[in-house]
Amino acid sequence: MATITELKHALEHKASATTSSSRQPLSDNQYSTGFDILKQGSESSAYEKFIITQLSQLLSRLLESRACLSMLEIGPGPESVLGHLSSRLRRKITRYSAFEPNSLFFARLKEWLHNFQGTELPLSCLEAPPALHQRPFALESTLHSISATSGEDKAAGFDMVLFCHSMYGMKSRRKIIEKTLELLVNNPKGGMVVVFHRNGALNFEGLVHHQTASFPSGQIRLANKDADLDAFSPFVAGYVMQDKDADDLVRKEWRQVLREFGRHDGSNEVQLVFSSPEVMVTFNQHATKLPELTAEVPVVRGELILKNPDVRQHRPAILVRPTEIRHVQQCVHWAIKHDLQLTILGGSHSDHCVWPNVVAVDMSAFNQIQIISGQEDESVSVSGMGARIVVGAGCRSGDIIQKAMESGLTVPLGSRPSVGAGLWLSGGIGHLSRVHGLTSDAIKGAVLVSVSSGQILYIGDVPGQHRPRDAIHPENEDELLWAIRGAGTNFGIIVSVTFQTYIAPTYSIRNWVIPLQDDAEARLWLHNFDELLAKKLPRSSSADSYLYWEADQLHLGITLIESSVDKTALGKQTLELEFLGSCKSHKIVDGVGLFDTEMYMSEMHSGNSARKTSAFKRGPFLKHIGTTNIANILIAAIKSRPTPFCYIHLLQGGGAIGDHTMDGTAFGCRDWEFECVVTGIWSRHQDGTSTARVVKNWVYDVMKDLLPLSNGVYSADLGPDPRDIILAEKAFASNRPRLAHLKTIFDPHHVLAYTCPLPKKSRLPRFIILVTGQSCVGKDHFARTCVPVFESKDLSVQIISISDTIKGEYAAETNTELIRLLHDRAYKEQHRPALTAFFQAKRQQIPQLPQENFLGAVYSAEGADVLLITGMRDDSPITTFSQLIPESRMIEVRVEASQETRTQRGSQEVTSHRDVHSQRNDHGMEHLDGLNSRPTFIFENDKHGDSSIVSFVESSLLPYFHEDLWTLGNMVRQVPDFPRTGIEFRHVLEIAQQKGGLKLCTSLLRAHAPHDWSKIDRIVCCEAGGFLFASVLALQVDIPLVIVREAGKLPPPTISVTKSSSHVSYSAAEDAKEKRIEMDKDSIANGDSVILIDDVLATGKTLLAVLQLLGSAGVRSESVSVLVVAEFPIHRGRELLRRHGFGGVGIKSLLVYGGY
Length: 1156
What we know:
Protein name: Phosphoribosyl transferase domain protein
GO molecular function: FAD binding; oxidoreductase activity; phosphomevalonate kinase activity
Number of strands: 46
Keywords: FAD, Flavoprotein, Oxidoreductase, Transferase
Distance between the termini: 51 Å
InterPro entries: FAD-bd_PCMH (IPR016166), FAD-bd_PCMH-like_sf (IPR036318), FAD-bd_PCMH_sub2 (IPR016169), FAD-linked_Oxidoreductase (IPR050416), Oxid_FAD_bind_N (IPR006094), P-loop_NTPase (IPR027417), Pmev_kin_anim (IPR005919), PRTase-like (IPR029057)
Organism: Calycina marina
């Protein structure tokens, strides 16, 4: 699919070859006609998903520092793009000026500005009439024109100057932007010049972008009619011929060019489709500040050889090459000072290492490699660690392996010798991953420059001689080390990495190539490869396969890689390989030679090592490649390949990769057996052409088909393409919220904006109600009845059934009627057993499926105040999901009904939550089997009608929106970087220091208690925060107070248990300390009903110890409720309690916070 730019070049070439007649510019009428055709053919998604979205975000950011907006628009056309903004944003625009040289457009713009759009004018809050100028934007006379027309102060300036598709034909673009920057308002700061442009990047010759974004999938659809083509082609070319006969001849030729270059939309011959990618760039007042940086840091002159074909098309503002760490610091200080960004260049494989008009920092000078034995450095804190290797951020994998092998060692790196630090930090999958884990798992320490402060940091275990003199050891190093091990390019500029090493093995490489006669044989071979070979291999071996097309036939290539530190042991493993037939090749190689053995380089397509090609890859993680649905997608993908050399590489994982927990490092995908590397290939000379774009679209199309069946996505491949955002959601899985939070801490100035896309902190629903219960209890009806009650309080509400996605997939695979499955209760109950079995099978294939479905539901409800989620039947869902969205309050309402009522409603199930029996947990506390989770509320739904539901919402749910809770929350002061850097401390106890604070807090605790206070026998609290609130509450309700203290502070007789340190800001050494807590032995009677009061629920360690203590006193789990002032779900306190058998303890919190 050709772009408009390529079409323009083709039209120019055809006109030159057809006639030598002189050319003349388009008239206003000709331009207007062509523009209208362009606008009619442009997909609305380009405006809705890109232009309006980006513009809205920019304006919202400006409104954080000002109450209203002044706008200057250059070339708005017949109506301003501002008219597509939300009414809220449009009402903030109080001053508007525009330059529009086209007389027809100018007249239509004036009419548009004075016409009502619905009930109001497009810009209804202007303080003065719009200042419109029917002339080109001329820099020399701009300020004079504006002031003469509107009578405004020339120095007033604008908050935003907007070029929306209006830079075409403008020359000296750098000069235009430089002069336009002078029109920005001086106070408040933050004004910007914004440019939207079709078809490729703009070169501004050394000016630095403040922000860029792209929308590569935009399209233009053009009616395949002579009249439309004759009007559109001159608009694209920018001229017509002066001679009428020559013009007629050229237009006839141009029609043919459009029909050749325009892709027909499927079988639709009526429309031609052209690619129309969009790009947005913004400039702030500091766009000209590059000389400040180049005066301090060495600059790279001349062309740079880059691996990534996309970045080869990019021209950075400048390329600097630091030779000392202080140079890196100077880059960071410069970026922070001027609110600008940097890209980091290592191996040059990533899609974001170089970006147009952004400063690129080439780290290649940091290329030292040194091996450190365990005896050489006494500063190491990890006992028993063997040799390590310290590598600079400018090193390549091949150099590291070669250096390590000189000492008989290796590091588990990827399969490409030219990759750099970006891959190590994003995972790193290679042929030793099954035995030693990912490359990022081998990272033990790092030196980096902080992009929040410019300081030099060392984290983890860095040998003393490799710690720079001015480096500091940050107190939040655990979080930073966790983050760089899987998402590392986002959190600082890495200078060096310390790896754990292993004894270097020797490798046996055997290859087989199997021609496949048809799809059935292909499916059989994929199944046999998975079941008979891959699944039977020991960790020291791995098997890869390749699907490709050659000699007019589908082929399956298989590579078996065996590794051993004992060369004589290679080939002696007992493997049944007869079904593979004769081996095509067999080699014994070392770690360096391993790089040259990949089948794509040596066997496929007659060998590709000498062929100059470019590649584009994306890699979903798959569990069962032999299943029919996955095999069919892979086979269809190869058949639809757009170029002969495209292929699919199935790279085996499993083994040691899965030894780490999902949240052990930032790498979010552990449960998979193969990375499916969908690889698009084209000839190098086709870089930047429609062929390259078609290949990329093919990769994304295959990814779209595989994504629902995948267990994640490899983040190392992801870049700035908007289509990668949804892939990034799968890449980081349940680690996404934590990474989004850490990004705001470690990169608060957005210095590293061009990296693997992490989720941004967005306005998620602040109140999430999980409506749970068995079938036919009325969950959906309950949720629907809640909506008008909340809406009557001016709260926006959304209902999402979390099971609808699974139902859709089930319907597609079984030819079931989806509409009936969603809305017909009897039909749904008929399919429930099969649907349940389908979901369980999916969950077995994708263990994190519940978390993915939950996050998908929450993110789809962005902007809502209240989200009700139905269709959920997970046990203890708050425990499972609350840490995923720690800044939202989550409650569970379990809807129950009698068996008789459920049967009347069509249920075929015969169990009930009410059918439970008693058992004991590990600590002797009795709880009810089936209730090792307790919902926030239970709603009995046997009555007909809505009145009981409405009453319940008003009495139990609306209190969460009472202004008293907001008042209480405002009393909790946020203290940054206390008690150590990176901690956003919430000073909960300060409530008591404010007038009326203690009274308000205890009254809210009293109101939110889960029981009638007359049924409570004891209030229990633990020092010190619990004492403060519980003592006042006990006085108010006149209930005895039981205090829990450190052992030795109460007189005997007492009972005690061990408690580990729980403060989240403690160091690891402090956290390892254990203490004992105790209470009076006879302070609680067997069978007492207890409410436990505390100030904070974070890690849950304090509550766990107190609950264990109560269990020792004979208190039943269901007889205990917990009330806390503030909860921090990110620390998974509820999960700890449930893991130790206390999930049945009811917990309520007044306040919920996402940080610490």
